[in-house]
Structure formats: structure tokens, C-alpha cells
Amino acid sequence: MALSTSMVRRAVSMSPKFDMTIGGKRVAAEQYAPIRNPSTGEVVGHAAVGDIRHLDCAIAAAADAFNTWRLSSEVARREACRAIAQVCVDHADELSKLLTQEQGKPLKGLGSEFELGGCAAWANATAELNLPVKVLQDNERGRIEMHRMPVGVIGSITPWNWPLMIAIWHIVPAIRTGNTIVIKPSPFTPLSTLRLIQLMNDVLPAGLVNVISGDDELGAALSRHPTVRKMVFTGSTATGRKVMESAAASLKLLTLELGGNDAGIVLPDADPKAIAERLFWGAFINSGQTCGALKRLYVHDSLYSATCEALVDMAKRVKMGDGMDTANVLGPIQNERQFNRVVELVDEARASGATILTGGRPLGQGYFYPVTLVGDIEEGTRLVDEEQFGPVLPIIRYSEVDDAIRRANGTEFGLDASVWGRDQAAAQRVAQQLEAGTVWINKHAEIAPHIPMGGIKSSGIGVEFGEEGLAAYTTIKIISAAF
Ligand code: NAD
Predict the structure, then answer these.
(1) What atom in ligand 1 is closest to the CA of residue 187?
(2) What is the DSSP string of 197-250?
(3) Within its chain, how far is the Cα of 26 from the centroid?
(4) pTM exceeds cut of 0.90
(5) Mean pLDDT of all residues in 385-395
(6) Alpha-carbon torsion (471, 475, 476, 479), positive or negative
(7) What does the DSSP assignment read for 39-68?
(8) How many angstroms separate the CA atoms of 478 and 135, rounded?
(9) Would you state the pLDDT for residue 306?
(10) C-beta separation of 187 from 34 below 8 A
């Protein structure tokens, strides 16, 4: 990235420091890491680099707060969730700008303001969810009740693609069910989470929500810590496996939301023009850096050219650039490691004979990579077999629907999938056969706070959202009485 030394020096000296929050107090670190804007290379701010002592303090503060919060009323828990929602609303302007600067996503469209709106919506909706006491038996032999109890201190580890939304997905159900939490954001995007949790602590009892920032090793130490009773992790499958291993020694509960390689199948009766826009945003939301984005598209022979043309047409109309410019609806790839991976996957596909329908070369500044559609490609190419997590979509031709289903399922992943067609019954039949936690029909990547979401196979363990997601933050206690 071409930046003069004096520009970098000026940005570094002006940028603010972001501290951790432990037990309701701001906690400084000995060291701070510069966090750069992926669009410009400028330093946005400096994030505290926490160590094992900070981790121990944060867990002790959460354990201390749990002693009181576990006994809190339903009303207090709901109010805490609503207070978190209000923080997201009141500070949406500041937080969305910070998010755009550190993550790269645009302020507008399906970007930072949308993410802050989602945070508030999820927190408010989770406040309304219920896990009532269930009476399992009530007769002359006695009364047996099933209660949902908080687990204790929750450890949360988040990725860099939707840092605030995912933080809210971890924090709010934990608090709603009487737990306390220590969260560690991704070292690529810690600033907005550090700031959000500072602000939350102005309205919540001390110690309920604690944040420590630092490198991957801090995440490993959090997942190993014996006081932590449950880990909720969102990130790659490889790291999810490590979290599971670390959690095994103290038999923690686990929710793992991991990688995906979502397939979409366009059936022979679909209308390519009518579905192009939904297909496009299903794949390219957040420049493709979304776990549940469309990552492989299987299109029937008879519609292949028309579908490719409609998508290329969409690609030519969307604007990509610095997210602070409100005309842009797509931003850069968030970091160098991911950028290099995307470049490599497309170059390999090209070398193996695939056709680059549009895009295919870095734009030459920041980590911008254009929307790239790749045709004449099949399994056996890494771009199809692996999760690309960038603005690239391989479009694969098929002639038999059963064959497309088999190929869509032929992966270790099982996060989501989609089916596109006009005949409802035919689409439902295909949906039934796809191996995924969610299958959409004529849409992709649509989620809501009352609908459970989670992957199968290597895409995860457990679900988030809805009553099932909330229950995952509790253990069952049976009270069995004979009077
Ligand atoms: P990542 O696995 O590299 O990192 C995620 C987090 O784990 C970071 O905070 C990191 O510091 C921490 N970490 C790294 N090593 C660790 C260890 N040994 N123990 C504990 N923590 C450790 O993932 P990423 O690159 O930040 O995110 C991209 C991945 O996340 C993609 O695969 C994507 O599909 C997945 N993702 C999944 C969902 C979902 O809901 N299923 C949502 C968003 C992202």
C-alpha cells in the first residue's frame, strides 16, 4: 500500500488509544498495537495488547459479578438487554464510522450502519425471548419442574468480518440468561468492540461484560481457563477445533459457529434476470466475507449463460471503494492474509483453465479486489473446494439436479445452502436433500433473531438465536418434589 513515511507517522501520533474494560473499569495495557484502515493503510487507533494477567483479572471480575447476576430477576435481565440495544442506537454514528475505518465495510448499504441496526434489533429481540419453567409432572406422585439455570462465566471469541454484530450475538443471550462474559475480539478489528463494551459498561452493573484484546494466544488461554464454563466461538473451522480441544480439560459447554462453503442450486425453471440481484447480494454481502454467503453456485446447463450474464451485469453496476465515501456499497478485503488468499485462489483457478467472467485482478490500492465471477470451473479446484471468504464466486455448470445435489453436499462444510426455482414443490424436494443447517429457497443469507442458526458437519456445533440459541447458555435443573 503506497503511503509516505510522514503520512504514516502523522496518523500514528494522532490516533487514539483503546483500553480494555474489566470489572466496569477501563484498563490500560503496557503495549498498544496499531490498527490500520484496510482501505487507506492509515492507523485508525491503537488497541491495548492484553496479557495473561489481564485475562485472569477479567475472568475474576466476571466470576465475582456472576455471584449477584445469577440471582437477578427476569425484569433486570430484560432491561440489561434493552440497555445494550439503546447503547447501539445512541452511539450508532460513532461506532459505525469506527467500524468502517477498521473493518473496511461501507458505512451505507449492507455495511456498518446496517450492522449497528442489527445489533440493536438482536439485543431488543433477545430481551423478549423466554425460557419458562416447564412442569413435567404434577399429580398425586409429586410435582417435577424443569428450570433453566445460568452456566457461569462465558468466554467469547469473535472474528473480523462482522465484529460488533457477532459480539452482540454472544453477549446478549449470555446476559439475558443470568451469565457474565469475557470477550476477546479479533486482533484485526478490536477497536469497535473495545469501544462498544466501554459504552455498555456505563449502563450495566460492573463485571457483567468484560473485554480483553490481544493476539490469538489470549484466545487460547481464555478457552483453557478452568473458571470459564462455556465457550462461544465464531471463526474458522481450524481454530474452532483448537477451541474445542482447549475446552475439553474442564468440560466446558460449547457453541461453535465455523466456516462454510454454501452452495446455491439454480433449477432449470428459474428466471435468471429475476433472481440475479438476490444471488449477487447473497454472495457479495460484506465483499463475500460472511460465513453464510453464497460461495459456490451450481447452474443448470439451460440457464448457464443467461445467469452468468445477469450476474456480470450486476457486478458492473456496484461501486467498490473507501467505505467512508457514501457512494460505495462494497469495501476492501479486511486484511493482507485474506487478500493474498483470494488472489491465490483466483490465480490458481485461471491457471487451471477457468474463465474469468469479470474482475480477477487486484485493483492496485489498499486490499481492494473487484467482484470476480469465475465460469467453466469444477470441483477439484481450490476456489470451489475451499471457503474463499472474499468477493469471488465460482459458477459451476450441471445437467442433472441429483448430480448438483450430490456435488453441493460433497464438502466437509454444512452451514447453509439455497435453491432457486419457480416450482415450490420441486425446490422443497431439493431443500430436503441438502446437508446444511439452513436452506433458503429463492434467497440466501437471510437471518433473524427468532430463527435458530447453526452449521452441521465441520461448520459448527449448536445454534445461536431463538429459544434454542438462548437455551445453549443454560443448564437444566430438575426440581422434583413429593409433598
Ligand atoms: P479465525 O479462526 O482466524 O479467528 C477467530 C478468532 O479466534 C480471533 O479472535 C482469533 O484471535 C482467535 N484465535 C485464533 N487462534 C486461536 C486459538 N488457538 N484459540 C482460541 N482463539 C484463537 O477466524 P477469522 O479469520 O477471524 O474469521 C473468518 C472465519 O470465521 C471464516 O472461516 C468464517 O466462515 C468464520 N465465521 C463463521 C461465522 C458463523 O457464524 N458460522 C460467522 C463469521 C465468521
Answers:
(1) 11
(2) HHHHTTTS-TTSEEE----HHHHHHHHH-TTEEEEEEES-HHHHHHHHHHHHTT
(3) 26
(4) yes
(5) 98
(6) negative
(7) TT--EEEEEEE--HHHHHHHHHHHHHHHHH
(8) 10
(9) 98
(10) no
Concerning whether 291 is annotated as a catalytic residue, the answer is: yes
**pLDDT of 14:** 64
111 is written with which cell numbers? 455495511
Residue recorded with cell 440493536:
120
Quote the pLDDT of residue 364.
81
State residue 462's pLDDT score: 98
pLDDT of residue 1: 40
Closest CA to 156 of 291, 18, 62: 62
| C-beta separation of 199 from 209 below 8 A | no
- The atom number, within ligand 1, closest to the CA of 162 reads 43
Pocket-forming residues, ligand 1, beta carbon under 6 Å: 157-161, 184, 186-187, 216, 219-220, 223, 234-236, 239, 242-243, 257-260, 291, 387, 389, 415, 455, 460
Q: Please tell me which residue in 57, 291, 308, 387 is annotated as part of the active site.
A: 291
Q: pLDDT, tens digit, for every residue of 179-196? A: 999 999 999 999 999 999
68 closest CA partner among 205, 204, 211: 205
| Mutational pocket test of ligand 1: of 217, 291, 458, the residue with most ligand atoms within 8 Å of the beta carbon | 291
Are residues 159 and 193 in contact, defined by beta-carbon separation less than 8 angstroms? no
Of 184, 192, 213, 216, the one to substitute when testing ligand 1's pocket (max ligand atoms within 8 A of C-beta) is: 216
- Please give the Cα distance from 122 to 128 (Å, whole number): 10
Mean pLDDT on 301-312? 98
pLDDT surpasses 70 at 459: yes
Place of cell 496479557: 51
